[in-house]
What does this fold into?
Amino acid sequence: MEERLKQLLRLVVEDVTSTGESVGSQRLVEDHRLDVSPATIRNWFAELEELGYLTQPHTSSGRVPTEKGYRFYLQELMQERSLRQRELQQLQQAALMISASANHVRQMARAVAELAGEAIIHSGQNQEASTTGLSNLLGKPEFAAHERVMGIGASLDRVDEIMTKLRAQQFDEPTALIGQDCPFGDDCGSVFLTLEDGTLLGIVGPLRMNYPRGFALLRQAKRLLEDSDKTV
It folds into this structure.
């Protein structure tokens, strides 16, 4: 893919991630102060559509990434980010509250859910899966439709089965499972990370979830949890 199209796709993915709305050529040019005209951007949109990376939900609307577009972003374009000071402090505060009890991962999961604005699911060996932040997920506009709520609900009914299968894999680094690969439905994105004790910690959101933030949050949560285990 040509560099100009890569950078345009990156802008579209990140705009849709932050706003939840389709991206129009005029707004893109103005918001990012691009040195090309809206007409040129529309031509590039058409090229990305032909390649299968963007789609136009409605005739008069802007563009949104397809699953293929998100995959390309994750594999080629995403730049991992560091946590902001406030985010780091909130996770550190959660770590200070952690004890040797069975709830230590749950305490951290709540902090991650609040910061990610998504649902968090975790499951250890011989433990039932636990979910927090579901209201974050179901409050997203993507899940306003009844059939989508039913779909994610059906997946959550099988959450123990799903997490058991996922724990059979080893996610040594944050790993995104999206669309057709996401065990919670084609409309969802997810990021999973395996902790040192085998516990699986995952973030579940819409396909447009903020993957760079999710990667950073899971990495830091794992670091703090494992540091706290060593000091107990």
User: Anything to note?
Assistant: The CA atoms of residues 25 and 150 lie 34 Å apart. The chain has a mean pLDDT of 90. DSSP finds ten helices and seven strands in the chain.
